[in-house]
Prior knowledge:
The protein is built from two helices and 60 strands. The protein is mainly beta.
Amino acid sequence: MKKSAKLLRLGIFFVAAGTVAGVTPAVVSSSHASHDRATVQDKEKVAGEDQGEEEEEEEAPVDYLGIKAQSGQPMSAGLITLARRQAERIATGDASKPWQFVGGTNIGGRVIDMAIDPTTSPSTVYAAVSSGGVMKSTDGGVNWKPAYPTNAQQAMGAMARGSDGTLWAGTGEANPSGGGDTFMGDGIYKSSDGGDSWQQAGLQDSGAFGRIAVNPKDASDVWAAATGSLSWSSGQRGLYHLTNGGKDWKLSLAPTNKTTGAIDVAIDPANPKIILASLWDRSRNDGAFMYGGTGSGLYRSTDGGATWTRQDNSTINGPVCSWDQTKSGLNTDADLGRIGIAFAPSDPNRVYIQFAGANGPDKGFYVSNDAGKTWTCGGGEPGSVTGGYEWVFGRLWVDPADENHLFSADVSLKESSNGGNSWSNSSGPHSDHHAMVWDPNEPGKVYNGDDGGVYYSTQNGATRTWTKAKVEPWIQSYHLAVSQQDSSRLASGLQDNGSVRTWTPGAEPTDLTQVNSYGGGDGHWVQIDPNNQLVYYACSQPSPPRISCQRTVDDAATGSTSSTRTSFSSPAWPSDTRITTDMPIVLDPADPEYVYVAGTSIARSAKGAVNGTDAWKLISPATPDSPESLPGKIPANEVNPDLYYANEYGAVTQIAPAKTTGTSTSPSSTIYAGTDTGKVWKSTNANSDNPTWTQLGKGVLPQRWVTSLVADPTNADHVYASFSSYREGDLAANVWESNDGGATWTNISGNLPNAPVWMVTYDQAHNQLYVGTDYGVFNLKNGKKNWERLGSQLPNCPVLDVKLSADGGTVFAATFGRGVYQLHVKD
């Protein structure tokens, strides 16, 4: 995981109501892509349900409005269940046809965990995808397909398979982000038919899972490391134990505070009474995170989890590892972070642990030869003292045939053949590693899951022996651009997989599942010039005060394969400028040769120039933490202490120029802007030497992260805004409209589910408003009161962007986990 690796706005909460014991199971099928919804027996009547086009629209029910008004309070499983019910019961409108998968399939995205079924030939392999459910391969890892229902929660955290064939999937990702979001889940699911159907199996208020372990000698004996939510005090945290087939989880190892949960658990393969588990203290808010604390620790049980002993430095033989910056080792300390554990199957007395400091540098690698009773610092350091990312990796894997051959997750895959005395890189796979599994039926074959998808090696993971899977129908898309001349020309910014396009210079798109890269790092905002599809842009995660964007110009749509690429120079803003991970890039709608980027302030390019001394002009106050700056002063508790991710909060997140205030040769003079600190601004003289800005909606608009701003292309006074603040535990849906230039605002959220709204898209010609949410795409037409669900069979993962074809006839949804989908809404 490079610094440019992780997501954008944080903390999406999907949790279903339930108790630890006595959960009523619900069965969902993945054998077909359907949106069958369970009947919900409750009192509320969701507005707009089962109503005809001409019927009078209802107001939202009281309990619905109550949850919408709720703000900044601790989340509960019940509140989030209500939000999910709201989403499921919103009526499907005219466009009830199924969404169609577009692509891509040749890139892949983050794989969290893997499991293997050796009873088939070849062995069937399963991959838990970060926000894309469970995938399955029956041909040795070459081709993959979904093995999880589209209408179930897609965020994954852990996966395991028991000797009886039962698959266990823990929803909610325990790998936290550096620059953005981590998506939460709604408990554990299990499948007894190879992923054809899944049953909810409890722990719905767990938030996320770091690991699931099944007793190799008793498939009914299951352990689950419930990590908890990053942003609210989820009720089920710690290590849970199941002994009766899925009906009664018992808390075996409880956390010491409300920000701690379990992150790893490992069972001695020779003596399942010996168990090692780790707790992890972690939290974050809008701007700051702390991925370590006094709640973190390593624990050992010798009686099957009846009692636990915390391992500290008294169990270490000799000194702590020399690279431990605070020298606190395993002792209770604010610097103790994530701990990974691995037994050696060929010698169960051999155990390895690796752990990080609170800000991510490698803190220790230790070896035990007495099943975890005592430890000795290993001879080599697998991680990095300066890398600062071990909180997103934190795993070790041991070759089942050789206790001295092991791998460590890191940016690069680390390999040791001498028990950790020295390490080298196993080159070939994509970066940022999270999962490995060996095939017991094919000696030397091992699978790897990382931020680039699935790789496999038939030479035991030796460097440069890895082969990438061929068909992987999951990508994590932040943003999408659609050509206004040819809607088959799509560009998308992907998590840790750069910016991709469906065409190559000089060649028209053919197979949209096959995309190719035109920018590296973590791709974020992309744009295609609306007047000239041969000109397009991409930005990756910035490193404040530098930005990382480029413009590409193809010579021709067909024929010449040449193109010119120009990197953006960074505007001349202060060295301590704050720039959000998901830095916006906007083309002026009146004259797209003018380009906008933003940090603490907004910069506009010269006409057609994005590089050079005079390329950029700052058009808003530039001094960070100045009351006059658009974001304003950042509260002390939201200034990130992590040096690797400093200055990535307190910035402009949205820019919306008003088209009618510009011309075909000059940029717009009226611009709306929004910030991650929850402020909306407007300038009506943005073309002057000293533009002035007025804050809009003070005391009316929610002071929440501005996720979208849209100015009507025909009326500069008509504007839409959306807000979210899920890092702060706010579940309210917020879409607002102004018809008088921001002087007054109306909340038009109506019957939208109380969940994040990531993008608002406006089709002015047809008076259609679209929003992308955690629960799909919804539209509001002709100024009506109630929203309708758009289409069916869209996977239940976050939709971070929504775009339209030039005629408004096709809607494109960019999902964070299952790729890009399209829906034809007009014949």
